[in-house]
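Hello,

I think I submitted the NAP job twice by accident. Can you confirm which output corresponds to this input? Input:
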Amino acid sequence: MKFTGRVALVTGGGRGIGAEIARSLAREGAVVAVSARTPSEVEAVADEIVKSGGQARPFIADLSQADQGPALVARVASTLGPLDFLINNAGIASSAPVAKISLEEWNRIFAVNVTATFLCTQAALPAMVQRGSGRIVNIASVAARVGARYIAAYAASKHAVLGFTRCVAAEVAASGVTANAVCPGFVDTEMVAQSVSRIVAKTGMPSDQALETIKNQSPQKRLLTSTEVAAMVSLLCSEEGRGINGQALVLDGGGLLA
Ligand code: NAP
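Support: Only one job matched these inputs. Its output is below.
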């Protein structure tokens, strides 16, 4: 139980990668604030953790609204205690050629993926630095490291998350706090299910073939699991992970080799 007594906030904790991160931190003894917009999902994850002997509380927040991130961090700290781990996982994706991305869509992606990560980190960091310990883990993507067709808004947002992570890491390096980004390839979640639906809608391809196309982008010809991402987050939050700072930990089966 390496995280006993630690307080963690997982944004986007209602399903997918965030839910698995919440479960895995709680299994190691952390008290977990599970947050997202959909009450039924965050409540289900928090209930499941509590029923299996862990500690978790649901917190509803819409991080597309700039004031809600800092308010969430404050609410979690006042309810559960000072934050040890902030996992900026909430994220959204869309796809379109550059010529067809509206400013509204660009801003929608940036508000959740980038601005909320900035604002939650800014709200959590001073107390961590003051206490001389803390972990910021930003769930970026391999799209933080490479570009590809039709994902300009998403990839630009994840590149921004990585740049932000590196700067935070530099600022806190001497304080006992670390900031890192986890950069997965395709993970078996609702987000990929939506990508499959978009491919089907745009190309008329059958959905199993669309899914194969996505799997084939990995040299391992498979989707990652949320458990694999959560294991990396656990490492970053652990004492053994304290030397890892400002890194982009790529988890993609060996697709990106630089
Ligand atoms: P997901 O299943 O769609 O879950 C996303 C989570 O974020 C949900 O809990 C969602 O809950 C929450 N969220 C979305 N908009 C929000 C908002 N405005 N305010 C608060 N919470 C919000 O996606 P996932 O695959 O688990 O993705 C998690 C993270 O991993 C994202 O940052 C994503 O970019 C990244 N990632 C995913 C993949 C992949 O292949 N799946 C690969 C690389 C990186 P509500 O909708 O209820 O708010």
